[in-house]
Amino acid sequence: MNNKIKAILTGSILMVLLFIFFFPERMIKLEAEGYDARYLPDETFELHWIHSIEKSEWYEIYEVEADAFLLTDTYFETFGAGVPHESESAPELTEDGFVKFTVNDTYKTLYLNVSENVETTIIQNQKEYPLYEFYEANTALEMKFVNTSLIQRITGG
User: Fold this and answer.
1) Which among 14, 12, 36, 39 has a CA at the least distance from the CA of 149?
2) Where are the transmembrane segments (predicted)?
3) In Å, how far are 12, 46, 87, 152, 154 from 37, measured between CA atoms?
4) How is residue 80 annotated by DSSP?
């Protein structure tokens, strides 16, 4: 291989690496005081937990909009404290025994209180993120959109 081809190939590889490391992409940033930030893809996810009073599973579906999280549906097993009572459409009973409420509320930022007692978990693309294993009990967590490059995520910048 002659030197000109080697130089072009090396330059091309360097350009691709620079692009990969420095090109910003929109991500979901999970941020809590005293912890390194975590990042999730900018995609639909489910937020799961155990209701603190009813002790039953509850989960919500969040879709990603241009500048907000869209809570489309919420699912729960039993009625009790904190359970929605109004929906855009009639509640449905799913095959697995959950009541489904259509919500369609938007949020620029989501605030969670993570706890092992309620097993706060995010599920995205069939991958589980057990937040209660990543953070101490009662950690306040903020979820928001950011534009960040791979090098910023690696270095914590």
Assistant:
1) 39
2) 6-23
3) 32, 19, 34, 11, 10
4) -
User: Residue 150: which H helix or E strand, with range?
Assistant: helix 150-155
Domain ranges for the chain, please list them: 3-155
CA-wise closest residue to 107 among 143, 147, 82, 148? 143
Distance CA 25, CA 19 (A): 11
CB 50 within 8 A of CB 57: yes
Q: Answer whether 0.70 is exceeded by the pTM.
A: yes
78 pLDDT band (50/70/90 cuts)?
confident
The reported pLDDT for the residue numbered 84 is 66
Question: Which residues, 6 or more positions from 90, have their beta carbon under 8 angstroms from its beta carbon?
Answer: none
What φ, ψ does residue 48 adopt, rounded to 5°? -115, 145
Q: Quick one: tokens of 25?
A: 């992409």
Q: What are the C-alpha distances in Å from 61 to residues 25, 27, 122?
A: 23, 17, 10
Q: Is 110 exposed, middle or buried (CB count within 10 Å of its CB: 0-12, 13-18, 19+)?
A: middle
| Residue 99 · residue 113 · CB < 8 Å | no
